[in-house]
Amino acid sequence: MTSNDVLKNLTEYNVWANWRVLKSFDRIGGELPDYAQLMFSHVLNAQAIWIARITGTKSPVTVLQRHTLEELHRLHEQTSPKLVELYANADEAELDRTIEYTNTQGKAYSTKVRDILTHAINHATYHRGQVARELRLAGHEPINSDYVTYVRIQYGQDLEI
Predict the structure, then answer these.
(1) Using an 8 Å Cβ cutoff, are 143 and 102 in contact?
(2) Mean pLDDT calculated for residue range 97-111
C-alpha cells in the first residue's frame, strides 16, 4: 500500500471495513438489531446509488431499502469493489468530471466524481459507526473497522482479520 494515493487506499479500506461488518453480522446470526441492519443496508444502497450516478445507469435500490443478510452480502460484492474499480480506472479528467443528478428529495446537484468517491467512503464510515453502536446496545461486541486497523494489517503490524 502506498501512502501517496489516499483515495485509492480509502476505497480499498471501504471494501475491507464493509466485509468486516458483514462477518460480524454472520457471527451474530439470527435476528440482527433492526437499526444496525437498516443502517448497513443504507450504506450499501448509497454506494449503489452513487455508482449509478457515476456510470449513468439506474440504481437497483432505493436509499432506505432494507436487505436480508444474504442480500447485504450480494450488494456488498456488487458495490464495494466497484468503487475501487471506478477509481482505479479513472484518469484526472474522469475524476474531475462533474456529475449532474437529482438527490432522493428531488433537488438537483452537480458534483465531481472525485468528491463523490470521497463522500461515499466518508458516508460509509459514519454509518458503520452507527452500526457498531447499535450492536453494542444489543449486547454484541462490534467489530473494529477503523482505518488505522486496516493500515496496521496491511503493513503486517496486526494479524487481526
Answers:
(1) no
(2) 95
Residue 113: helix, strand or coil by DSSP?
helix
Cα distance between residue 111 and residue 25, in whole Å = 33
pLDDT in the model for residue 2: 44
The structure's pTM equals 0.93
Instruction: Of 11, 3, 154, 19, give the one whose Cα is nearest residue 85.
Output: 11
**Mean pLDDT of the 107-116 span:** 98
- Tell me 98's DSSP state: E
Query: For the segment 134-159, what is each residue's pLDDT rounded down to a tens digit?
Result: 999 999 999 999 999 999 998 888 66
All three cell numbers of 160, joined, read 487481526
Q: Please choose, from the candidates 8, 25, 11, the residue with its C-alpha nearest in 3D space to the C-alpha of residue 142.
A: 25
* Whole-number Å distance between alpha carbons of 59 and 46: 9
- Contact indicator for 86, 54 with CB cutoff of 8 Å: yes
Instruction: Characterize 121-157 residue by residue with b for buried, 16 or more Cβ atoms within 10 angstroms of its Cβ, and e for exposed.
Output: bebbbebbebbbebbeeeebebbebbeebbeeeeeee
| Residue appearing with cell numbers 466518508 | 122
Per-residue pLDDT for 160 more than 70?
A: no
